[in-house]
Input
Amino acid sequence: MLDFVVKRSLQVIIVVFLALTAVFFLIRLSGDPTALFLPPDTSREQIEEYREILGFNRPLYVQYGEFVGNAIQGDFGQSLRSGESALGLVLARLPATFQLAFSALFISLLISIPLGVLAAYKRNSIFDRIAVAATVVGQAIPSFWLGLLLIYTFAVSFSLLPSSGGGSIVHLILPSVTLATYSIARFTRFTRSTMLDVLRKDYIRTAKASGAPTGSLVLKYALKNSLIPIITLVALDLGTLLGGAVVVEMVFAWPGVGRLLLQSLLNRDFPIVLAGVFIIAFIYSIVNFIADILYAYVNPQIRVK
Amino acid sequence: MTTKSEVNVVKGSTRRKSLRITNFFKKLLGNWSGFVGFVIIFLLIIISIFGKQIAPYDPMYTDFTKKLLPPLTEGHLLGTDQLGRDVLSRIIVGARVSVIIGLVTVLVAGTFGTIVGIISGYFRGWIDVVLMRIVDVQLSFPFILLVLVVSAITGTGLRNIIISLAIGGWVIFARVIRSEVLAIREKEFITACVATGVKRSHILFKHILPNLITPIIILGSLQIATYIIAEASISFLGFGVQPPAPAWGNMLSEGKDYIFSSWWLITFPGIAILITALGVNLFGDWLRDTLDPEFVE
Amino acid sequence: MKKYVLPIFLLVVLFILTACTEGTSEQPGKSNNTDSTTNSSGNKVESKKDSIVIGFEADAGTLIANTDVNYATDAQIRNIYDPLITRDSKTGKYIPFLAESWESLDELTWRITVKEGVKFHNGADFNAESVKFSIDYILDENNGSFYRSRWANISEVEVISPTEVEIRTSVPFPGLIERITGDLLILEPGYVAEVGKDEAAKKPVGTGPYKFVEWSRDNYLKLEAFEEYWNGAPSIKQVEFRYIPEFSSRLSAFLSGEIDLFKNIPVDSVQSVEADANSKIAEVSSSRINYLALNTHYKGPLQDEKVRLAINYAVDVDELISAILNGHATKMTGPLSKINSNYTETTDYSYDADKAIALLKEAGYAPEDITLTLDTPNGRYPMDAQVAQAIAAQLQRIGIKVNVQVNEWGTHLEKIRNREMKDMYILGWGPAFEPDSTIFDLFTQNAPYSGFYDEAIEKEIVEATKIFDNAKRKEAYNKIQHLLVDTAAWVPLWQQGDLYAVRKDLKFEPRVDEEIKVFEMSWE
Output
């Protein structure tokens, strides 16, 4: 097991490093951002001077070497626009993104697991059909559009909830519901099918035949046995949730990493983009790492590969 | 990530059912949701080919005296936008963008991913290690974010957005196809082929490739909706297909500023995306259920 | 699976229905009065008469002055820092602020006398030393100020007495006063030295009417009144700038009472605000101008003066203003708006399709032979992409085919700066008060923003920027304005109409220089 963990940790480091390298070169190919930060009446010579100060006039490999050297020490440079530490700016936004992602996760688990269990338990009932239909629709709704509709309904038409911004629980409701919709659909479907599999298992049938009450049967045995695959799926999906947060953050003006990253892309504020990519790739890899360990723990045979 | 694909090794390719054209329609007619999905896709393709002929108005024709008309006024079924253009016509013509995005991206990403998957799974060794490491790098980044970063860098426009989506999307094909190839390779008849000295290219084209067609089709059909929604999201954020060309994503993006005064601008293009994604997903689900119920993405 | 089809369709239909009915039930005449609106945290606010929440599309880049060239940054920090010279909110004329007076001693030397008795938020005194420090701050490469490029002509700043400072320039620089007004805000030297510039950028100290309280990145900036402000204590005590990038979210936050004021409301949404009982619209003709550049650097028909003239005749600016901007703009006819000093009246090429076609014929073109590209940003200026599409439609009427290319702003600017633009593009310019910066930075060879260059005119422009004598300057600029109009250097469009959504009982006068000075506002 230790061997597996060490190997996977090493892999995380390599993966993050390669991701940064790829983004570094891609972003440098997109052009020189210097002029965007200067007043419009700046002369060409002056733009040139700034490029020199910011280091954009040097050969690419020199810039890359410097970037790697600094990045290893945790220094991703300063924001081109404000001169503040890029990594610091990203880290400051991280709690907000986590808050959004985890409350969405919480909502989706709260809804999808009972829904999935019940749908499986009452298989082919009206309830089941509606639940399954809802999951199919839920997976087809673009989240940004759902966000717009929710803003329209709850913030504009009825003035019940604030449309945007961060800071309080009330602000969190609409964005986390929006973000949760896709996961609710996905988790419900998965819970339902996993439960159905388990319910078909012999020992459940035996218990049923011996006259155990079905309600407690479902909770006691079936759900318990379905929980591990569900947890694994959830861990794997956490990354997707973090990714989806970007779009939702924009629609609801949620002050998280995604919005910062998007604005920095628009502003061509490269150090922030790189620091953001680093943080996201790192977290994403760690989450997958944990999911893998979980998976390995559940299915011991894959460890020996 | 790799660990997950290893699990697929247990599965064989024997579980699959083949599907002939005649059989296909017979089965399709027997299944409502698959059929509905198919009809939606069929209509969508018709609309995207003949959109200009079907549309009641020129989607680009601007008439400032008729801007922001609500639905069902002056012959505009779904109303007009801020430049007086007919919303229905723009949705109809905009279908082409979504269809092209879905199909071309799946073609590009699928082809590239399949080639990588085959190379990786068939030859194994160092090339497999290298390719799968690249796949891991990509998978260490959420799909939508990757597409966003790449399209912010490559710039706007239909071609660039397809490139970005394909860059974001090929890995899933590579991973799935690799594990399929691994599974097929272990099959007795392949081992027998190798033992009797059958040429590599022969094994590849006669035995392995035909067995890959089903998983590619299933995976492809399941991916299309993801691409269509991703394109709409990217266009909505301003990096995708740019106005004045009509596309559902940028129609929503333009319409969001009118959310208070003109609800139809953000409603109908969104419904178009929803129905399209729904149709593609229903059909994809049916394909999987019919061809290979145990298929895992 | 087939059993699920019916429910799916019911759900979709339900979805569609709710989406539609949501729309038809719009604007139920919300009658929430400001006194009892729920605020962001859901608590009732008894009286918000001494606080204000202002919506902004973007966060400030930094809170230290003299660094980030960006409207969002500048508009916010001008409530914390004071300038030496400001502008009249209506005419745009210079008004001494922290400065008492200024004079040019000779062509290379300026003397500025500053006020006495002004204090910074931390209690330190404002004096000539702080002026020198603030200018030196811009000039010091290590501070990474993006204003430095504009101040390159400054060679030295010398403190003569506690209230007097002399600024020496390396070349005659009549534009210095404009730079001081537009760029320079006064920092507290002792504070910056004590805590360092990084800390000062997060917790700013100035002489302005508001003190810093809290800044949550991408979320809000909170300020409170500086009771010892030299110009009197502000009427509104608590200020919050809240960042909401999407316009639709901004508007819904405004209509639901979360924010009291925001700038740049699209013309088509003006009605939604006017229909609301607790809201009003404030409008001012901005000093920012929008124009259609005709690129003479690109090899195409627009290098021909007659073709440019024809385009001027074929574009119906009046129609664009009334149809697209709903009248919220002020038409321009020449390179300068009426707000500019030294503005002069020039020929107005009003819409005349026949004349346009005749001119094209003279130039040897049939309109149908011409295909032009028109680049536009999307959302940078009021209705920019729509204006571009409408211009294309207008040119199409006389037979010229126009391909509209919509760019993301960064790309648009890059294309202009790298001279990759083709025939035409839409751009805005401002705040534009002085002809020096406007004409010099637009119509000279090295300035890419108008796409127009003419050797003879450039000579005139360069001469004009060096003239100190006001009457002679005026004469020179009059001539240049006529020259630019006669050669059809561009298609002037309009001064933007700056539109603000304002809470009904807020006393608020929009300024021509786009500044948002909470000090000048009060609740009724």
Remarks:
- Chain B touches chain A through 44 residues (CB under 8 Å).
- DSSP finds eleven helices and no strands in chain B.
- The domain at 30-56+82-291 of chain B is CATH 1.10.3720.10 (MetI-like fold).
